[in-house]
Automatic annotation (TrEMBL):
Residues 2-324 form the DNA-directed DNA polymerase X domain. Gene3D superfamilies: 5' to 3' exonuclease, C-terminal subdomain, Beta Polymerase, domain 2, DNA polymerase beta, N-terminal domain-like, DNA polymerase, thumb domain, Metal-dependent hydrolases. This is DNA polymerase beta. One of its GO terms (biological process) is DNA repair. Residues 52-71, 92-111, 127-146 form the Helix-hairpin-helix DNA-binding motif class domain. It catalyses: 2'-deoxyribonucleotide-(2'-deoxyribose 5'-phosphate)-2'-deoxyribonucleotide-DNA = a 3'-end 2'-deoxyribonucleotide-(2,3-dehydro-2,3-deoxyribose 5'-phosphate)-DNA + a 5'-end 5'-phospho-2'-deoxyribonucleoside-DNA + H(+); DNA(n) + a 2'-deoxyribonucleoside 5'-triphosphate = DNA(n+1) + diphosphate; a 5'-end 2'-deoxyribose-2'-deoxyribonucleotide-DNA = (2E,4S)-4-hydroxypenten-2-al-5-phosphate + a 5'-end 5'-phospho-2'-deoxyribonucleoside-DNA + H(+). It is found in: Cytoplasm. One of its GO terms (molecular function) is DNA binding. It comes from Reticulibacter mediterranei. One of its GO terms (cellular component) is cytosol.
Amino acid sequence: MNKNEVAFLLEEIATLLALKENSSVFEVRAYENAARALSSLDGDITQLVKEGKLKGTPGLGPTTIKRIEEMIETGSSPFLEELRTSTPAIKLEMMRIPGVGPKKINAIYDQLHVTTMSELEQACKDDKVAKLPGFGKKTQDKILQGIAFIAEHSNRFLYPIAEKEAARIREALATLPEIVRLEVAGSLRRKRETVKDIDMVLSIDDNAGSDVRRKIMDYFTSQPSVKAITGKGETKSSVVLNSGIAMDLRVVGDSQFPYTLHHFSGSREHHIPLRRRALSMNMTINDYGLFKTENGKEELVPCKDETDIYAALGMEYVVPELREDMGEIEAAAKHELPMLVQESDLRGVLHAHSTWSDGQNTIREMAEACMARGYSYLGLTDHSKAAAYAGGLNEDNLRRQWDEIDALNEEFAGRFLILKGSECDILRDGALDFDDAILAQLDFVVASIHSNFNLPPEEQTKRMLNAIANPYVDIIGHPTGRILLGRSGYTLDMEAIIEAAAAHGTCIEINSDPSRLDLDWRLVRKARDKGIKIPLGPDAHTLAGIDNMRYGIGAARKGWLRASDIPNTWEVQDVLHFFQTRRKR
């Protein structure tokens, strides 16, 4: 376990304690303080525990240190498991409703005695929740909206969770010598932001017998990460993994592999027009093959891989990320698909935090981690003063931070450059949290909304438009504010936002945190077609967070972005020139 994982478990303990009847506010606070204290500690947590260096750390008492040591030594916490087991299931479910904390959950549970989400939904519809002390109609409506959001996104998983599970199974299967080809398919292969299940396709020699298929399926269904087997055969087996995500494995002969992989990669929306094109050429396509009908006789069109399938249909190869019926069929038929950005095109980072605000690593550590990953610059964007909860900087601290950046840049000269930036809060009226005199001294500014999420659509849109009109706003950060599987975004007129950003030459980022991936890929292409530049911002608060860039690449490719559309694929002097030029304009 790393420091972040342990801190997360301490926060969960605090939450579950707060949900207990007659819980001690001091005990809850102790675990909250411990989580914060741990997050701000320097060094490897395992080493600190091993050397007994947690004792005496402000915010960590004997009991919380004991819990941390237990987590590090065993990888689990019996105390946390006991709390999970003893907490009513409905309370845990209600924790998923945005904006509903332990106090409100306990009030609903104690006074309305609901035991399921459907009972809570009915209680809201009957106006029972609104009548509880401290609630009201507005809170009740938000709870109803939260229940609807949870229902809509139930049984879905964030991309990294599904990717990790698939990689574990793929790595295990790859050890079997009988397997010829092995690929992940489905929405995971297409880099969708959330995934319902995992599809995997593998091939064996065309002449292999049933014993080979049975061996592979036995090995697959007996993996440690498999919680339940829901179907088992020689060509397809289905399981549920420990994470709760379902997975299908299909085994085919190697000559059939390209067609099966293509079919189960999807999407359905892509396949429908593709099949129409095939029919117009007297062909049919399915998971068994591509067939051409001549003189009333159907013959297989041999294809070594998916490239051959598209070529047989007179098309360029369509990469999985683009297979969403967003114009890729027509573009591929005309051989006009863009050369999509790749992770190797990235040159620097343009949204990251340090210990100056709510990051967990120093500027030096963040810069050195960027260098280790092959980047040549880091755009540092610690929070502004309005984000007090995140340790936002006032003007004096911002200037002190510049001194540190200047010293590091002098040390790194010729190797690496740290850009002076800020993730500056957009206030309720659309003004910025720093005045123009301060903003003008920064190399670039990311402007983001972190408060007043529930303004009426017209007011929220006007707020964002005002920010875009500020000449010192170079990038709009996480523009819709969504948290995948957690909350919907702000109610904004995104068409108007995109038009305004294009008119002012303002960038809109793809926030590459996998729980955000905001701007949504469906809007990315619209922004690109308006000439808007779209940086990828990892929103890194840790060294590991820098690697969020890879998730942003997936969203960028789904949005048809080329390297030229993304400022942080450019050399640093080109990036600085771009920001300076757009400000002058």
